[in-house]
Amino acid sequence: MSTVEVRAAVAGDAPEIARIQRITWRTAYTDMLGEQALAQLDSPDAEQSWVDAIAHPDTTVQLATEGTFIVGFCVAGLAPREEVASAAGELPDDAESTGLIATILVEPRWGRRGHGSRLLAGAAAELRRRGAKRGITWVAESDSASLSFFRRAGWRPDGTVRTLDTGQRRLRELRLTGELEIELVD
To answer: Does this model's pTM top 0.90?
Structure first.
């Protein structure tokens, strides 16, 4: 069996992160996002965006690996005020100690091997280290796989929704919240 782990991304990982995002979004999200939004992933700027995200001091980009392969990634950091605010713009009492899981993706061919759970646990540990007490994430209402993944981790919708315009479609997202004490089960 190959060794599996989660490690911090470095700038040289940006091309592989961009590749995983392209494959995963095209496999799982074409119907939700539309081709216009997906075409942006082929932009020459896509890899540079990942280099910038990795270098950003307030962002943690972690990779799941299996053997010598990068199989998934997670982006997390303390939640910006606009992400944690209610629909009316009000901030909860714990706004300053809320972490955001901005994205978590595992390339489909590497799915169902625990990589997503390891990424979430690694991101949660890093968020706790940064002072976060709870986490939030946004998931498309029609993304049953991601909703199920976060529900298994104990995260639940908090009643806040938003609608994103992809240029071709409107995507309704639910905000989920949960504890950052993630325990992996073998």
So the answer is: yes
